[in-house]
Amino acid sequence: MDNLHYNFIVDQPLSNYEPSPRVYTAASASSEQLYVYGSRVDNFDENERQLKTVIQIYECSTESSKELPTSGTPPTGIYGCATSYSGHVLYLFGGYGTSFHASLHQLDTRSMTWKQLSPQHDSGPMRKSECQMIYCNDSLIVIGGYGITSGELQSGSQFTVDKDCQDGRGWTNEIHKYHIPQGKSQIVLQLICHDLFYTLLLKYSVY
Asked: What percent of the chain has pLDDT over 70?
């Protein structure tokens, strides 16, 4: 630990691509690449459609970036999304565009094709951004976030209203799990009690 230090990376863009300044970006990594989706950028309204249809890839071995087009059904959220990567699939939940969203999408990084995943249950996470998502044991666990609740809260969870806003948005500590059986197209949404979640924190050290 005494020798720990930071190195400033001078990005060497591929194909004359240079990443633009951005905030609220969603990013997840494989062993060789960092996948970056969406953000809040300058002239957001003009660039919203383009942000939905491209993904930035940072190559760890060459310390360079490139931007690739995607196809399929892209996420509805543009920034403040939660992402997680497993196998060759990038999963993305929620986010904000012109409103908050609670949809779950996956990107096949081999074909660069987006697909919207449909849970079997209507009840699910509130529409939100700025949450976190981890992948473990063939499941995605969505934690917390900031957004708008549309009805009853998850049992045992809390919602704190943002007093600076007038539309009822606020913070939540709700926790949901999407079970994704390998080789199947359907996913199952489950609620997680908070005691179980803290057990997961200890087991996987995601704190």
From this structure: 69
Please state the pTM of the whole predicted model.
0.80
Calpha distance 190→193 (Å, rounded) = 10
**CB distance 24 to 80 below 8 Å:** yes
Encode pLDDT of 153-197 as tens digits: 777 788 899 999 888 899 999 888 888 876 544 455 555 544 444
What pLDDT does residue 207 have? Answer: 31
- Single-letter amino acid, residue 204: Y
- In the numeric block, the tokens 């863009």 are attached to 13
Pick the CATH number of 73-204 from 2.120.10.80, 1.10.10.10, 3.40.50.300, 3.30.750.24: 2.120.10.80
Distance CA 97, CA 94 (A): 10
pLDDT of residue 3: 65
18 φ/ψ angles, rounded to the nearest 5 degrees: -130, 120
* Cα–Cα distance, 119 to 180 (Å, whole number): 10
